[in-house]
Amino acid sequence: MRRWALLLALGLPLMGSMDADAQTRQGPPHDWTFGSWTGGIFPAGETEGGACLGNPTVIFTRDIVMRASVVDTAYRERTIETVAQTPNGLEFRFTAAAPVLGPMGPRAAPDAGFGCAGGPNVLRVERKGPDELAFPGCSEFPSSLKRCTTSGK
Fold first, then answer.
1. For residues 8 and 1, what is the distance between their CA atoms, to the nearest angstrom?
2. Does residue 11 sit within a domain?
3. 126 CB contacts (<8 Å, ≥6 apart)?
4. Which of 16, 87, 137, 150 could covalently link to 117 via disulfide, CB atoms 3.0 to 4.6 Å apart?
5. What are the pLDDT digits (tens) for 65-81?
6. Cα angle, residue 102 at apex, residues 99 and 107 outer, rounded to 5°
Protein backbone atom coordinates (compact mmCIF):
# COMPACT_ATOMS: atom_id res chain seq x y z
CA MET A 1 0.00 0.00 0.00
CA ARG A 2 2.88 2.35 0.78
CA ARG A 3 4.35 1.71 -2.65
CA TRP A 4 1.09 2.74 -4.34
CA ALA A 5 0.91 5.88 -2.24
CA LEU A 6 4.54 6.68 -3.07
CA LEU A 7 3.96 6.10 -6.80
CA LEU A 8 0.85 8.24 -6.70
CA ALA A 9 2.64 11.02 -4.80
CA LEU A 10 5.51 11.02 -7.31
CA GLY A 11 3.30 10.60 -10.39
CA LEU A 12 0.87 13.48 -9.81
CA PRO A 13 3.43 16.27 -10.25
CA LEU A 14 4.66 14.61 -13.46
CA MET A 15 1.14 14.56 -14.88
CA GLY A 16 0.81 18.28 -14.18
CA SER A 17 3.99 19.00 -16.12
CA MET A 18 2.68 16.95 -19.05
CA ASP A 19 -0.28 19.31 -19.32
CA ALA A 20 2.01 22.34 -19.26
CA ASP A 21 4.09 20.91 -22.11
CA ALA A 22 0.94 20.22 -24.13
CA GLN A 23 0.17 23.94 -24.33
CA THR A 24 1.78 25.47 -27.39
CA ARG A 25 3.48 28.80 -27.18
CA GLN A 26 1.97 31.27 -29.61
CA GLY A 27 3.73 34.02 -31.50
CA PRO A 28 2.46 37.56 -31.91
CA PRO A 29 -1.04 37.91 -33.42
CA HIS A 30 0.36 39.45 -36.59
CA ASP A 31 2.96 36.78 -37.39
CA TRP A 32 0.98 35.74 -40.49
CA THR A 33 1.70 39.18 -41.98
CA PHE A 34 5.51 38.99 -41.62
CA GLY A 35 7.28 39.55 -44.90
CA SER A 36 7.09 41.65 -48.06
CA TRP A 37 3.84 42.54 -49.81
CA THR A 38 3.18 44.06 -53.24
CA GLY A 39 0.18 45.94 -54.59
CA GLY A 40 -2.06 48.18 -52.53
CA ILE A 41 -1.29 51.47 -54.24
CA PHE A 42 -1.79 49.78 -57.62
CA PRO A 43 -3.07 46.26 -58.33
CA ALA A 44 -0.46 43.62 -57.45
CA GLY A 45 1.83 42.60 -60.27
CA GLU A 46 4.55 39.95 -60.11
CA THR A 47 4.57 38.15 -56.74
CA GLU A 48 7.50 35.76 -57.24
CA GLY A 49 11.23 36.28 -57.14
CA GLY A 50 13.37 39.37 -57.30
CA ALA A 51 10.87 41.57 -59.14
CA CYS A 52 8.62 41.53 -56.08
CA LEU A 53 11.17 41.16 -53.29
CA GLY A 54 13.28 43.98 -54.72
CA ASN A 55 10.48 46.54 -54.59
CA PRO A 56 7.74 45.64 -52.09
CA THR A 57 4.99 48.12 -51.22
CA VAL A 58 4.64 47.13 -47.53
CA ILE A 59 6.96 45.16 -45.22
CA PHE A 60 5.71 43.76 -41.90
CA THR A 61 8.12 42.78 -39.14
CA ARG A 62 7.61 42.00 -35.46
CA ASP A 63 8.01 45.64 -34.33
CA ILE A 64 7.80 47.79 -37.47
CA VAL A 65 5.60 48.24 -40.54
CA MET A 66 7.32 49.90 -43.50
CA ARG A 67 5.46 51.32 -46.46
CA ALA A 68 6.59 52.65 -49.80
CA SER A 69 6.20 56.37 -50.31
CA VAL A 70 4.95 57.84 -53.55
CA VAL A 71 6.79 61.11 -52.95
CA ASP A 72 10.12 59.76 -51.65
CA THR A 73 12.52 56.87 -52.30
CA ALA A 74 12.78 55.97 -48.61
CA TYR A 75 10.28 53.72 -46.87
CA ARG A 76 8.14 55.22 -44.12
CA GLU A 77 8.68 53.24 -40.91
CA ARG A 78 5.91 52.98 -38.33
CA THR A 79 6.69 51.48 -34.93
CA ILE A 80 3.97 49.12 -33.70
CA GLU A 81 2.49 50.04 -30.34
CA THR A 82 -0.24 47.35 -30.17
CA VAL A 83 -1.83 44.75 -32.41
CA ALA A 84 -5.33 43.41 -31.78
CA GLN A 85 -7.12 40.60 -33.57
CA THR A 86 -10.44 41.40 -35.21
CA PRO A 87 -12.98 38.91 -36.60
CA ASN A 88 -11.49 39.11 -40.13
CA GLY A 89 -7.98 40.45 -39.55
CA LEU A 90 -5.95 42.79 -37.35
CA GLU A 91 -5.88 46.35 -36.05
CA PHE A 92 -2.46 47.95 -35.68
CA ARG A 93 -1.88 51.01 -33.50
CA PHE A 94 1.36 52.85 -34.08
CA THR A 95 3.38 55.25 -31.96
CA ALA A 96 3.10 58.86 -33.09
CA ALA A 97 5.12 59.52 -36.23
CA ALA A 98 8.17 61.76 -35.97
CA PRO A 99 7.58 65.19 -37.51
CA VAL A 100 9.28 66.23 -40.73
CA LEU A 101 11.17 69.52 -40.68
CA GLY A 102 10.11 71.89 -43.41
CA PRO A 103 10.43 75.61 -44.20
CA MET A 104 7.41 76.36 -42.00
CA GLY A 105 8.69 74.23 -39.10
CA PRO A 106 7.96 70.65 -38.03
CA ARG A 107 4.86 68.95 -39.41
CA ALA A 108 3.56 65.42 -39.88
CA ALA A 109 4.79 63.69 -43.03
CA PRO A 110 2.01 63.67 -45.64
CA ASP A 111 2.30 59.92 -46.08
CA ALA A 112 3.15 58.94 -42.48
CA GLY A 113 -0.03 56.87 -42.25
CA PHE A 114 -1.88 54.73 -44.74
CA GLY A 115 -4.69 57.18 -45.53
CA CYS A 116 -7.07 55.30 -43.24
CA ALA A 117 -10.24 56.66 -41.64
CA GLY A 118 -8.85 56.05 -38.11
CA GLY A 119 -5.97 58.49 -38.65
CA PRO A 120 -2.26 58.05 -39.32
CA ASN A 121 -1.67 55.93 -36.20
CA VAL A 122 -4.24 53.20 -36.97
CA LEU A 123 -4.17 50.49 -39.65
CA ARG A 124 -6.85 47.84 -40.09
CA VAL A 125 -5.79 44.76 -42.03
CA GLU A 126 -8.33 42.38 -43.55
CA ARG A 127 -7.17 38.88 -44.42
CA LYS A 128 -8.43 37.92 -47.90
CA GLY A 129 -6.55 34.61 -48.17
CA PRO A 130 -3.31 32.92 -47.15
CA ASP A 131 -1.21 35.28 -49.29
CA GLU A 132 -3.56 38.23 -49.78
CA LEU A 133 -4.69 41.08 -47.54
CA ALA A 134 -6.32 44.50 -47.81
CA PHE A 135 -6.40 47.76 -45.89
CA PRO A 136 -10.14 48.57 -45.82
CA GLY A 137 -11.01 52.25 -45.63
CA CYS A 138 -7.49 53.37 -46.55
CA SER A 139 -7.56 55.77 -49.49
CA GLU A 140 -3.84 55.43 -50.25
CA PHE A 141 -4.15 51.62 -50.58
CA PRO A 142 -7.32 50.95 -52.59
CA SER A 143 -6.11 47.62 -54.02
CA SER A 144 -5.40 44.38 -52.17
CA LEU A 145 -1.82 43.36 -51.43
CA LYS A 146 -0.22 40.00 -52.24
CA ARG A 147 2.70 38.35 -50.47
CA CYS A 148 6.04 38.28 -52.25
CA THR A 149 7.27 34.70 -52.50
CA THR A 150 10.31 32.86 -53.81
CA SER A 151 9.82 30.65 -56.84
CA GLY A 152 10.28 27.52 -54.68
CA LYS A 153 7.27 28.26 -52.45
1. 11
2. no
3. 88, 89, 133, 134, 135, 136
4. 137
5. 999 977 777 888 999 99
6. 30
